[in-house]
Design brief:
This protein is an alpha/beta fold. The chain has 13 helices and 17 strands. The chain has 3 domains: 142 residues, Rossmann fold (3-Layer(aba) Sandwich), CATH 3.40.50; 70 residues, Archaeosine Trna-guanine Transglycosylase, Chain: A, domain 4 (Roll); 206 residues, P-loop containing nucleotide triphosphate hydrolases (Rossmann fold, 3-Layer(aba) Sandwich), CATH 3.40.50.
């Protein structure tokens, strides 16, 4: 039996092509949704872009028929704009105010009641990214679902970039001696290019080693950079995952690196240290570019006074905090003087990345979990020859209203590039900021 899916506005603003995701079922867009989409068209951000794209898609469908009637879609389903079923009678005693959300609920509820009077009535399902709208739908006896077609992964399946493998003592000794093993010797494991393998002794001894997958040669090999006890700009690896991160960050044959992990795991500090080392000390890159999306946490401060750099400072302060630590500055204004004198370090908002071509640069994108799929594609297609780009963030700490841990741009890149030889990823798991920070991350859920 086919179904009727009523779409909330946020579904279309998250994915303009969502109306093609419901197979051979009927998709209904309430008129109030069109009003909400229209109100977002003038926004100069991703939501505005999606609103304009939705408008173009629906306008293009007008050529196949009248939108207030049922028009066919290429996937075998159908679409119609619902102009009727707007009566608030069924909801007026439950939800008094006629908000847009409640108007959408009313349309879905009235459609459901109409279908129930038919002999072969179809189920009516409200699709919304808003959890409270789904709760309201349940309260009035209406079926509802989250829109999941935009998810890159299922729950807790995000690629970590490393795997633990228990091997015989003989194999571990062979790896110590030769510095490599064939992938066929690591039985029962699907391995990806540049994935890390933590070899452990199956007999229970403390012997272990970290290897890296070389898919071209069907081997796992010892790391190129042995960071045991070594320092880069005063920073050294404190755990196995940080050793893995440094390997990826220092390898010039891996131009795309993604790092995930909770606050305090060292993502930003390690990346800035290796970027400065390769730009300033080795001269491998002409410039170090650091950028992050401007998404406020809590209430937005509104327009800020001053020139561009003064406006950016509050948003980019976490980056400057790490730079102050690396440069060991102690006086106010000292870091600004250092950066002005060097000229090779550029701290920008992502707004200024679009439209550029960026060759010979070490590019760091912080808080990449707040990027959409389209935005992250825009950034990666800006990367020029001989550049390296690092995307980092915490997929569980999303500030964007339409993103979650499973559909954000960072997760998208991690999953799409895990099969590619030019990319590497690692999830940092151990906090190194302080004992308090680690405890807070563990117990404050």
């Amino acid at each position: 039996m086919t179904k009727i899916y009523v779409l909330d506005t946020n579904v279309l603003l998250q994915d303009p092509y969502a109306l093609f995701s419901f197979q051979d079922n009927e998709v209904v867009i309430p008129a109030v949704v069109l009003e909400e989409v229209d109100s977002k068209k003038r926004y100069m951000d991703e939501i505005g872009r999606n609103a304009r794209q939705v408008s173009r898609i629906i306008d293009g469908l007008r050529e196949t028929g009248k939108l207030h009637e049922k028009i066919p879609l290429e996937n075998g389903g159908s679409l119609r704009i619902e102009l009727n079923h707007r009566s608030f009678h069924q909801l007026q005693e439950v939800f008094v105010e006629k908000t847009n959300d409640n108007r959408i609920l009313a349309v879905a509820k009235n459609l459901s009641l109409e279908e129930q009077t038919k002999e072969n009535g179809r189920p009516v399902i409200l699709v919304s990214k808003d959890a409270l709208v789904r709760v309201k739908a349940d309260a009035i006896g209406l079926l509802s679902e989250d829109f999941l077609s935009d998810r890159v992964i299922e729950v807790d399946d995000l690629y970590s970039g490393f795997v633990e493998v228990y091997v015989a003592t003989e194999l571990l000794n062979s790896f110590y001696l030769k510095g490599e093993l064939t992938i066929s010797e690591i039985k029962g494991q699907k391995l990806y290019p540049n994935q890390f393998v933590m070899l452990k002794d199956s007999m229970g001894s403390s012997a272990s080693a970290i290897a890296m997958v070389d898919k071209k040669r069907e081997k796992i090999k010892k790391l190129v950079f042995d960071q045991e006890g070594k320092q880069i700009w005063g920073i050294r690896a404190r755990n196995a995952q940080q050793i893995m991160a440094l390997e990826l960050l220092l390898r010039d044959d891996i131009p795309l690196v993604t790092l995930t992990g909770r606050a305090g795991t060292g993502k930003t500090l390690l990346t800035l240290a290796t970027g400065l080392f390769q730009t300033e000390d080795l001269g491998e890159y002409k410039k170090l570019v650091v950028a992050r999306p401007i998404v406020p946490v809590g209430k937005d401060l509104g327009f800020l006074p001053g020139e561009k750099q003064e406006k950016l400072r509050p948003w980019m302060q976490p980056i400057f905090d790490n730079l102050e630590f690396l440069f060991n500055t102690k006086k106010p204004g000292e870091l600004d003087a250092i950066l002005a004198g060097m000229g090779s370090i550029e701290v920008e908002a992502l707004t200024y990345i679009r439209g550029r071509s960026i060759p010979d640069q070490f590019i760091i994108i912080d808080e990449a979990q707040n990027l959409t799929k389209h935005e992250v594609k825009t950034i990666l297609t800006r990367v020029g020859e001989r550049s390296k780009i690092v995307l980092m963030g915490d997929p569980d700490q999303i500030d964007h209203p339409y993103l979650d841990a499973y559909n954000n741009g960072l997760t998208y890149v991690v999953e799409k590039f895990k099969d590619q030889q030019i990319a590497g990823h690692v999830k940092l798991v151990k906090g190194e900021r302080s004992a308090l920070a680690q405890l807070a991350a563990d117990i404050l859920k």
